[in-house]
Amino acid sequence: MSENAIDPLPEQVKAFLAKHPDGEPVYMLNLLKFKARATYHDDEDISGAEAYGRYGEAFAKLVASKNIDGAHSVFGGKMGAWLIGQGEGEWDAVAIFRYPDAKTMFATVSSEDYRKIHKHRKAGLEGQLLIACDNGNVFD
């Protein structure tokens, strides 16, 4: 069973930073569920997916403006059909983003510039699973 959420718990942040060493890349696997309608304070009537799209665009600009070496989107796409196993269709999209290390990732999403764009994420997301993955090769 999974628990859909918007923000990490303090103990999750602590465990994340402890598990991922400095200088080691971290890949963030995002499983995203959008609200049917975004919830902006001014009641702007757009879909949750559109609001999250604004967040994604602003986030890409933020990362580029900070010139974070090695940070980039690896993949993003709409959820397709279940091929192996079965789910309840709770995810609308998936994305993978690479950061040079965990501290850089956390500093980026804790910055004042990030707080300015976070409203689009919050307006558009019903919830998500965010899974931190290392660069280890499981097939060796």
Automatic annotation (TrEMBL):
Domain DUF1330 positions: 45-131
Q: Which domain of life is it from?
A: Bacteria
Q: Write down the PANTHER family for this protein, in alphabetical order.
A: DUF1330 DOMAIN-CONTAINING PROTEIN, PTHR40257
What is the protein name given in its UniProt record? Answer: DUF1330 domain-containing protein
Q: What is the lineage of its organism?
A: Bacteria, Pseudomonadati, Pseudomonadota, Alphaproteobacteria, Maricaulales
